[in-house]
Write a structure and sequence with these properties.
mainly alpha
């Protein structure tokens, strides 16, 4: 007689959480359906039922990991307040994020950079950059918003890859320079707009 199937609506999420823990501990090369099933304490068939391929599992994990800095940014009042110093707020938020749980920050970037070799992850990486740029576009134009995202990515990667300390005054100055080129809706240009 077949056993009744156990209803487990949280299983898919537990598998994604387990995948994040596996990648955090062993890197992407340590990720397999088997390692995730063991970490999630679910049958191997559950991982392949919910995620036919490792790329599908990585897509779900990257989407979840992307929430870290995105959430930090959405919680920032500076995006809604046209009088707030956006460069100062972004530099401060980056510092808080990097100073937070380092494994989580490294995990986000490891998954983000995995898109270099795993084309299935590229749309998710693009979703993240687009979402952050859209949020920043409330305070500046879309082109400047994308430049801010690129600059913040570069600063964060340098800190993570070189082990150097995050330099908030430097980040603030560089963000200010990008913003000075086009300060945003209703503001006077900083003199470099349209250059190039």
């Amino acid at each position: 007689m077949a056993r009744p199937r156990r209803h487990d609506p949280e299983r898919r999420q537990r598998i994604v959480d387990a995948a994040l823990r596996v990648v955090g501990a062993r890197g992407i090369e340590g990720l397999s359906h088997r390692t995730v099933a063991a970490e999630a304490d679910v049958p191997l068939g559950s991982t392949t039922y919910h995620f036919a391929s490792l790329d599908e599992l990585l897509v779900a994990a990257l989407r979840q990991a992307n929430e870290g800095f995105g959430r930090t940014l959405r919680e920032s009042g500076a995006l809604a307040d046209p009088e707030a110093d956006l460069a100062d707020e972004l530099a401060r938020r980056m510092g808080e994020w990097i100073a937070g749980e380092r494994t989580g920050v490294e995990l986000e970037y490891e998954l983000y950079l995995a898109a270099l070799r795993r084309p299935a992850l590229r749309p998710v990486a693009a979703e993240w950059t687009d979402a952050v740029a859209d949020a920043l576009s409330r305070r500046t134009d879309p082109v400047t918003a994308r430049a801010l995202v690129a600059l913040m990515d570069g600063i964060c990667l340098q800190v993570l890859l070189t082990g150097t300390k995050y330099d908030e005054p430097y980040a603030r100055e560089m963000l200010s320079r990008v913003l000075a080129a086009h300060p945003g809706p209703g503001a006077a240009p900083g003199g470099t707009e349209g250059a190039g």
